[in-house]
Amino acid sequence: MLARPGPTRPWQTPIRPSIPRAPGARLAAPVFAALLAACGHPATEAECRLMVDRNVELQVAGMLTPPPDLEKEKQRVRAEMDGVLKGCVGRRITDRMLRCVQGAKSVKEIDQCTR
């Protein structure tokens, strides 16, 4: 008959072998997380609309003569960019790209942000 094990005593605890780790293993996780964040995420409709709206603002502001009806002109430019909005949703974007678009001072800068 087998003996029933008694309570574990601290001096009888088996020693677990340590797992060898690479010297940079502790740094790898934060670096990997940063790289994943840099890869971006699929753009939502709201994020795409934000980029299109910023583009519209800059296009209208860059016109040589201000249009008589500003809102009508914005609607016209938005209608032209409807295809851009549809193509944007689901594309990979980064937070950095969004910040760049929000801070852009011209349509050319927005183009550079989205490349």
Detailed description of the structure:
The chain has helices at residues 25-39, 45-61, 70-80, 82-88, 95-103, 107-113; strands spanning 41-42, 92-93. It has six helices and two strands, in the order αβαααβαα. The chain is rod-shaped. The protein has a domain at 41-113. The chain is mainly alpha-helical and 115 residues long. Helix 2 crosses helix 3 (70-80) and helix 2 packs antiparallel against helix 4 (82-88). The protein has a two-stranded antiparallel ribbon.
Number of strands: 2
Strand content: under 5%
Integer average pLDDT: 78
Task: Report on the biggest sheet.
Answer: 2 strands, antiparallel
**Structure annotation, total helices:** 6
Question: What is the CA-atom radius of gyration, in angstroms?
Answer: 28 Å
By secondary-structure content and strand pairing, the structural class works out as: mainly alpha
In percent, how helical is the residue content? 55-70%
* Low-pLDDT sequence parts: none
Distance from N terminus to C terminus (CA atoms, Å) equals 75 Å
Identify the overall geometry.
rod-shaped
Order of helices and strands: HEHHHEHH
- Placed side by side, the strands forming the largest sheet appear as 1-2
